């Protein structure tokens, strides 16, 4: 099977589908640094580093009309504005419109769209109903739900709306939850115990893999990349030194509290549980529960990637801010893998 990945980012969806022997023939990503990082990791895939709104859909995607699947997570600001009845035809939701336009032109057997959970609940289901209507008019049977990545082997509580469309006349079922959940410590305990400011872009593994999850992430990698600790200020380190395992800002004295509005501010990752949702600011302790379980630093790009379920042979290139965007905005590959399995299963029906 062949797939097109729109709004690809670093390629979390691509990786999950590729592991199910789906050939990602072309990807589209507007961000130059992220597109470059995707291409370095996936040299066999054509990368179109352009604004999709400026593309001629017919001429660009005409040679990919044999694609079986279209993947993507178009940013849709309107979907997160509670109480607003913004039509999908509203210019503020134009990126979704272009995703739908490519689907309508290519007419793949399947499409998978990922988005924020509010997509399905805002305005009493207004958007949900409109999505079903738009794709139904194209001939697709749509199944949509909110899935938590933690239910599919990802050591992270990350809830995302998943929409699957099929042209074959029946709904593709969502993947079944797995029984065993993976903890953050099972995901990252083999990564070097760096202090603030330590580490390098490329280094040797210092510790042998200790869990099956770690072995799976390392099986195609002989070197460790992206494991560099943020060089925190002395005041930030002082705060972290006062926070015990599982603790957060509530363990700080009043005079050391910051004005951060984020939930879990200065919180340590809980070793024996799943992480909170990884965002694009996980290198900043004041932005959430992103402090190492016991070291006085925020998690590294590689530790965040492990929590997102990326294999270690996915390397995040570019400036540190871009690397964090690549990890924080991605669909967890293990979740994508489970969704891909459902489509492959449906294809064989």
Automatic annotation (TrEMBL):
**TM annotation in the entry:** none
Membership in a protein family: Belongs to the class I-like SAM-binding methyltransferase superfamily. C5-methyltransferase family.
| EC number per UniProt | 2.1.1.37
Q: Which UniProt keywords apply?
A: Methyltransferase, Restriction system, S-adenosyl-L-methionine, Transferase
Indicate whether Methyltransferase appears among the record's keywords: yes
- Give the enzyme's main class according to its UniProt record, as a single word: transferase
Q: What protein name applies here?
A: Cytosine-specific methyltransferase
Source taxon at top rank: Bacteria
Q: Name one GO biological process term.
A: methylation
List the catalysed reactions.
a 2'-deoxycytidine in DNA + S-adenosyl-L-methionine = a 5-methyl-2'-deoxycytidine in DNA + S-adenosyl-L-homocysteine + H(+)
Pfam families membership: DNA_methylase
Q: Which residues form the active site?
A: 76
List the PANTHER family hit by this protein, alphabetically. Answer: CYTOSINE-SPECIFIC METHYLTRANSFERASE (PTHR10629), DNA (CYTOSINE-5)-METHYLTRANSFERASE 1 (PTHR10629:SF52)
- SUPFAM superfamilies from the xrefs? S-adenosyl-L-methionine-dependent methyltransferases
Q: Name one GO molecular function term.
A: methyltransferase activity
Q: Does the keyword Chaperone apply?
A: no
